[in-house]
Write a structure and sequence with these properties.
The chain has helices spanning 41-48, 66-69, 71-76, 92-102, 107-120, 136-148, 166-179, 192-196, 216-221, 234-243, 277-285, 288-296, and strands at 4-13, 16-26, 29-34, 56-61, 64-65, 77-80, 154-158, 184-189, 201-206, 209-214, 227-233, 246-252, 255-261, 271-272. It is α/β, with parallel strands linked by helices and 299 residues long. It folds into 2 domains: 4-214, P-loop containing nucleotide triphosphate hydrolases (Rossmann fold), CATH 3.40.50.300; 222-296, no CATH class. The strands form 3 sheets. Strands 6-7-8-3-9-10 form a 6-stranded mixed sheet, with helices on both faces. The protein has a 4-stranded antiparallel sheet with strand order 2-1-4-5. Strand 7, helix 7 and strand 8 form a beta-alpha-beta unit. The protein is globular and about 70 Å long. 38% of the residues are buried. Bound molecules: adenosine-5'-diphosphate and magnesium ion. The site of adenosine-5'-diphosphate has 11 residues, from strand 2 and helix 1.
């Protein structure tokens, strides 16, 4: 069973600190890095894959620093980069066969392995088509297939669901659940619903740091008492929407149902609500405390 340990990992580009002091311990399971654009997800994942070297701190795989594992580490790894490169004139089957050779999949096994991957991601019918004709969703699925070709113990997928339509997203979730047993699966996204149902652990990333970590139940429990529902009149709803992070606005007749994230009861008529991951996202990324300051200034 693989094990990854990050010890105070930091990456600085000139005067920009992209990842700062990240210390985490990953065992088998699905880990979802959730954060806005620019949070440092891609930089962290590239360091995890050994593509980038940390400025400070170390990454260990089964107790050994990954730089010292060299090629052995790469064979344990399957990586889908955020902007993954492909050959537009290759067919899907030729591309995967070529990559199987690069990843030292034994030649006798490669043909069957490629077909298995094509079936897994639902591209067996398009295997003879040139990649340049693929839609964004098909490309992502091909990217996922290439990442899994060598049965990696550690799978790193950077924004694997970008460009997928709702049906493809469901298929993606099923692929991940089907292959996650006994592996470390790490994925990044800025979309809450992508990780809500598949990640065993959520890592909330903001400005290069991990600001929250745990199961969906853990991280939602952390904001219990800070989520409120209130039915307001249209004008009042607009005013509250300016002051507080609002995760859900729903028109109900001439009134508007608001879901508000706030340390304190936003209105005497507001009732506490059961927190969800959307609310967690809003809490960490919409600066609930800044909104409170805003209110304190008497607006
Ligand atoms: N090669 C680079 N050179 C300079 N700055 C970079 C480089 N790569 C990323 N950054 C900066 O680091 C921060 C984190 O970027 P990134 O890791 O791509 O975040 P995310 O994947 O969460 O959107 C951003 O401010 C980005 O502009
Ligand atoms: Mg990114």
């Amino acid at each position: 069973m693989p094990e990854l340990k990050l010890d105070r990992v930091t990456k600085q580009f000139k005067n920009k600190i992209a990842v700062e002091h990240v210390s985490i311990h990953l065992k088998d399971g699905v880990y979802g890095f959730l954060g806005a654009n620019g949070a440092g997800k891609t930089t962290l994942l590239r360091m995890l894959c050994g593509v980038l070297k940390p400025t400070a701190g170390e990454i260990f795989c089964n107790g050994t620093e990954i730089g010292r594992l060299g090629g052995d580490y790469r064979y344990m790894l399957g990586y889908l980069p955020q902007d993954f490169g492909y050959y537009p004139d290759f067919t899907a089957v030729r591309y995967l066969t070529y990559l199987a050779a690069c990843k030292a999949v034994p030649k006798e096994a490669a043909g069957e392995k490629v077909q298995e991957m094509l079936r897994l991601v639902g591209l067996e019918g398009e295997q003879k088509a040139k990649i340049r004709t693929f839609s964004g969703g098909m490309l992502r699925r091909l990217g996922i297939a290439q990442a899994l070709l060598n049965d990696p113990e550690i799978v790193v997928l950077d924004e694997p669901t970008s460009g997928l339509d709702p049906k493809e997203r469901i298929r993606f979730r099923n692929i991940i659940s089907a292959m996650s047993k006994g592996r470390i699966v790490i994925l990044s996204t800025h979309i809450v619903s992508d990780v809500e149902f598949i990640a065993d652990e959520i890592l909330l990333m903001k400005k290069g740091r991990i600001v929250g970590q745990g199961s969906v139940a853990d991280v939602t429990e952390n904001i219990r008492g800070k989520v409120w529902e209130y039915e307001a009149e249209a004008e009042e709803a607009l005013r509250l929407n300016d002051i507080y992070p609002v995760s859900n606005l729903k028109n109900e007749g001439d009134r508007v149902r608001l879901r508000i994230v706030s340390e304190e009861r936003p209105h005497e008529g507001a009732l506490p609500a059961e927190p969800g991951l959307e609310d967690v996202y809003l809490y960490y990324f919409e600066e609930v405390s800044e909104h409170v300051d805003h209110m304190d200034r008497g607006i």
